[in-house]
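May I ask you to comment on the folded chain given beneath this request?
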Amino acid sequence: MKIFKLVKSVEIYPLNGSDKANWIDVDRVKFPAVKWTEIYIKRHGTLTIKDKLDSKTRVFTAELQLYTPEAINLDVPYLWRIGLVDGTYRLIGDGNRPYPVATLTETAPELATDNQLNTINVTYSSDKTIPYIM
């Protein structure tokens, strides 16, 4: 059996404090109908999900790295919906604190053939797993 977990799309939704995920299982959430904004990405972004035991508490961490020509205002916290090639979606953040932390790096390389896209890194840690969206 082949399993493909490549990132095919990334969408964001600015948090305004009232939109929260509804947990329906340990690793599944439903989210209210909101207008997601798709970010154009260079295929394929990287999503890494880790868990570790820290002081008898399980901590889950998601790290997303993507390359985009877009400059995104990261002054507000976002929920991040990650589409995978198998048709499933993962959610980074659930509307509650702590929020995902995103950084944008602009690159002006020495050579024109080097990467000139913006790099966005998103990190998120929680005592809940990084869920799939139903």
Notes: The chain has a mean pLDDT of 88. The chain is about 0% helix and 50% strand. Residues 7-133 form one domain. The first strand starts at residue 7 and ends at 14.
